[in-house]
Fold this protein.
Amino acid sequence: MTDLVRYRALVQAFAARDFSTRYRSSALGWLWSLLQPLASLLVYAAVFSLVFRIQAPPLGSDAARTSFAAFLFTGMVTWNAFSGILTLNIAQLRSNADLLRKVSFPAWAPLLGSSIGQLFQIGLEVLVLMGMFIFLLNVGLSWILMPFILLAVVLFAQGVALMLSIANAHFGDVQYIVTVVLGALYFLTPILYPLAMVQDSVPWMYGVVLANPMTWFVEPMHMVMYSLEFPPWWVVPALLAFGAVVFYLGLRVFNRYSEDLGEIL
Amino acid sequence: MSDYSISVRDVRKKFKRHLDRRSTLKETLVRGRSRNLQEFWALNGVSLDIPRGSMFGVIGHNGSGKSTLLKIMAGIYRPTSGSVSIDGRLSALIELGAGFHPEMTGRENIRLNGSILGLSKSEINQTMERIIEFAGLREFIDDPVKHYSSGMTVRLGFSVAVHLDPDVLLVDEVLAVGDEEFQRKCFDHLSYLRKRGTTIVLVSHGLGQIESLCDEVAWLDHGELQATGQASKVISSYLTHVNTEESLHRPRLVAEREESATQPDGADARPIEIMSVQITDEQGTALDHAETGQTFYVRLALDVKERFLGPNVRISFQHETGPLVAMVGNHRLGVDLGWLEGRHTVEMGLTDNPLLPGRYIMHVDVFDHTGARLVDSWADAVEFAIRSQRGEMGQGFIDLQASYRVDP
């Protein structure tokens, strides 16, 4: 843990590298950070609200109105925070293999660096989400819990990413498995549909969705941002504690299995 | 504070070589852990004490464990057993420019590389100008590194690494790159660092470099320490070892021509055929290599099928890198071989061989007495080595003797 403080300059340097090189050779640059999620929002919103006719729950500010797009984007922002960090991290060790074989430095530094770069992306999406709700005149005091839920997601994602990336350094298959599992998990999280809908129609699947940790983050997010309700007092502290524990475990596992990284890669 | 800045205590390093490398999960799950392992000791009980502020060389043939030792000192590998203690801030040049990002500019890469090597932000800012100056890249520093030539990348890498102000600097074979001028600059900077008390460990194949720079040298062979001590002594015993090893393993330099090669391919048989070529000493004993500065002999066996007058026997030496270095024939020297018939041995003495160490290829040509008609030719007849007991002797092909005079 003290290492985290000691090597913060190094983490910052990696963050700067990822951040500055991400869109360097593209004409639209960082605008892609916005265009990508907005494009998938458009597609999903069209298909699921027009074709499948999924009804979003009533908005917190006005029970007579609903907005499927806003409901969907709330879940997507939470999900993207998780999957963005995971996908960015998982290949980092292999793409930095050249460096890790030749210089001695903590191998988690490039991982945390790329995650910090991803925070910018998360922040941008959150701004768009807030803009959407302001446009819908759906603003409430419960919003103050949003940053804490996001922080918990980020900690959780980073912990998982640390464990999976070291596994990927040993076994190159892990990154492919992760892609498949992420694809399935997306539909097992109440992002494209309200949780109540599964509860009513497919009871066995309801259990699966509830057991999915991402549901634990997405549901409170829906509450505070969309329904403008406060979850029970213990929910957000519990999520933060959960995220912190997973992060700590991730670091432990990572350090335990990264000792001979210079030889493995 | 001890007198040594690096102490290596009985370090052993075992590498496993997976003959059937399993890096996918399926293979590990399906077939269990690989049984087809081959283990070998890259280092087998090495102990060294490197004095503070010294320049220390590590020599040995390829695969002797030099680089493994350096990587263990640098903390990239863990020793299987034993320990290494380093006193002070360490910087290692295992590969110059490792970790440069092609899309980033030189300046951005200096920041990144500096922090990877352990510099703080303010330290990087302080040394930024000196790094750019030393690398000589001022006009390109804000261009992406992908547009740099390999020489420029190396210069930038070296410049970052040496400006870290390390207490201990490990250098692995990286100075072999870059142009002559930059190499000189690097060595000057290493000397400067050392004057300021930096301990430098140099791994190199350039024995001349090592001898002129290092106080002490360690010689590794198959992961074991063969000798350590004063540079010139260790290097000369290493050279003796290498020379005897090679003479044991290398066949004598006698080239016999294959039967088929001697068959005439045209309508008329060749009047003279070169049968064999060998390199010998004055007594006619075959040698396995020649030495710079010492006379050696080239003996050709000729089969003269019909009485033949005054042929020109010419040999040429080509360096392994391509250039034709020298050519000598008896006509040019004004030597007439007279009438020949039957089997003859022609011996050429090459007085005080001026060719510098390296590998050379010898070609043999025989012309008639007019010098216009090629009677027989044997390209690539012999490839042989020229060595020197005096260590490295500079660049080029010829050991040029020169006298100097200074006018007042």
About this structure: The radius of gyration of chain B is 28 Å. The CA atoms of residues 42 and 384 of chain B lie 31 Å apart.
